[in-house]
Design goal:
Blueprint: E1 3-9, E2 17-24, E3 35-41, E4 47-50, H1 52-61, E5 64-65, H2 67-80, H3 97-107
């Protein structure tokens, strides 16, 4: 049995919502599935929830991810990547105010 990881649409008209499933490759798009692995909501700024452990398991057993799932998985990885720490540049040392006063007294 060839297993694929693909998207199954469960949303309504003009409101797509997808379930990410492990499914036999010969079954229908919205047919019976082996395991529910997560969801993908396209309307709420691409909200993706995945069960990463189970996805890794299915891929290790030989499941083939589809192209559409691969795109969604990249979205998930990008969203969960830890933000890089922002390092600010060191500030330039301030010049002493005494040197200004000394310069004005010399000019007089």
């Amino acid at each position: 049995m060839a297993v694929k990881i693909r998207l199954s649409r469960i949303g309504k008209k003009h409101a797509p919502f997808y379930r990410i499933v492990a499914v036999d490759s010969r079954s229908k798009r919205d047919g019976a599935f082996l395991e529910d692995l997560g969801t993908y909501d396209t309307l709420k700024s691409d909200v993706v929830t995945l069960n990463a452990d189970r996805i890794d398991y299915w891929i290790s057993v030989g499941a083939v991810p589809t192209d559409s799932f691969t795109k969604v998985h990249k979205l998930y990885k990008r969203a969960t990547k830890a933000p890089q720490e922002v390092v600010s540049a060191p500030k330039a040392p301030k010049k002493a105010a005494a040197s200004k006063k000394a310069a004005t007294t010399k000019a007089e």
